[in-house]
Amino acid sequence: MRAHSGAPPSRRRFLALSAGGAAAGAAALSGCALKVAGAATGGGESITMMVSLDDISTELIQQAQKELGISITVVANDITRLIAMLTSGNAPDLVRGVGALDAPYFAARGVAEDLDPYFAKSTILRTDDLDPANDLWRYDGTTQGKGPRYGMAKDFSQDAMFWYNTSHFDRAGVDYPSETEPITYEEWLDNAKRLVQRKNGQTTVYGGSYNGLGLAILFANLTAAAGGSLFSPDFSRVDFTTPEARKALTWYVDYAKAKVGPSLIQPNPDGWDGPTYVAGRMAMSGNGYWLGGMINAEAKVAEVSRLAPAPVFEGGPRLSSCQGGTGMWMPTKARNKDAAWRVFEWFFGEGPAKGRAEGGWGIPTLKSLRPLMPQKEDYQKRVLKVQQAELEHFSVTPFTPYIKTEAADALINQILPAAMNGQISVDTLAGRLNSTINEQMKRGKEQVG
């Protein structure tokens, strides 16, 4: 379905969020707004952006005011509040989203603006300069990656790649992974078991962390790496009982049981990999190039850090997926679309985009900004060489439009620990995941169709 005009979408169309909306909303700063005022240099327009509060700093807001003459009010990214704003006719002008997961969902519900007419006229965001990763934000009503553009990624990574700390490998006598040929997932887990360090029953150094950007998209990608698809051809159902999905589930359950890295039954006190890896308490981190933005800030850590290709399953295809493609989209009910597009151009193609590229926070989604990627130090040159070679294996794992990823993750988080703790088999786990998630997806399909 193409984006359309008319009455605001009803709450019924968003019921598929119910299982995950509360969890997502609780994790966000609901109701928090930040506005930076000042003398406008242009027409004095203003827009509202719903983003994470670290997406656009106070300094950038002031910069937008000065350069564009547009004042920006920032509302914290919160799915529960977004639904309320969309259904009340008070939509934000730009909204943060994850292209790999959000584009089909919002496009299918007719709430995301088709941005093709804006791109066609832009001299800053030219379609011939867009990296193919931006196709995550395209949806033709059935297939992700085709059709109109509903948003753009601010940067991207191949999120199945992993970083590793050579000092931990040296200490444990483990050979470094190849920088050109992928190791298998089985080898990755074996290495993690040799690299983990424990003292008095406590883990002092994680052998490795491999959790993706969320378990739903992680399992979709692991299943693809095993040579299958987690979703039915029309994306209306999941099937965790196929041989490929079972291989993915089995591997991840084995990872959790081994307690070599963070999981639902062994949470990371830091909340995520970044601080742990930079502090030297993690030997391998399953995050893509973007984590280099944090690693580069710590020279001693950066010097011993390497980036490796995405692992493969024995006999499976070589894939290196983007699981994110975080960026922004414009609601069809945005009230200041022209001003919002001007901020969109500035954020994705001008000063802010150049700053992100220079910091190593992901691969720029404009090909013309690639030369700005960090390559001054030898270790940066090494990482860049690995990343550039990996681009040849870039892939997209399409996600269903019939359930929000937060909702799917919430359901998985309830069911998975029993298998991790050895209380149920992988077969029982697969069956429970199917029945629970498919029930939600059936409701979601009814609301779209």
Brief sketch in words of this structure:
40% of the residues lie in helices and 14% in strands. It has 449 residues and is α+β, with helices and mostly antiparallel strands.
Strand residues, percent: 5-15%
Mean pLDDT: 90
Overall number of strands: 17
**What low-confidence regions span 5 or more consecutive residues with pLDDT below 50?**
1-42
Outline the biggest β-sheet.
Answer: 6 strands, mixed
How much is the radius of gyration in Å? 22 Å
Silhouette = globular
Task: Report the helical percentage.
Answer: 40-55%
- Give the CA-CA distance, first to last residue: 9 Å
| Strand order of the biggest β-sheet | 1-3-2-4-15-7
Structural class: alpha+beta
The number of helical segments is: 17
What labels describe this entry?
single chain; 449 residues; alpha+beta; 3-stranded antiparallel beta sheet; 17 helices; 14% strand; globular; disordered N terminus
What topology emerges from the helices and strands here?
Blueprint: H1 18-27, E1 33-35, E2 45-51, H2 58-68, E3 70-76, H3 79-87, E4 94-98, H4 99-108, H5 116-121, E5 138-139, E6 144-149, E7 151-153, E8 155-156, E9 162-165, H6 166-172, H7 185-195, E10 197-199, E11 202-205, H8 215-225, H9 243-258, H10 273-278, E12 284-285, H11 292-295, H12 299-303, E13 305-308, E14 320-321, E15 326-329, H13 337-349, H14 351-359, E16 363-364, H15 378-390, E17 394-395, H16 405-420, H17 426-448
Parallel strand pairs: 2-3, 2-4, 14-17
Antiparallel strand pairs: 1-3, 4-15, 5-6, 7-15, 8-16, 9-12, 9-13, 10-11
Helix pairs in contact: 1-16, 8-9, 13-14, 16-17
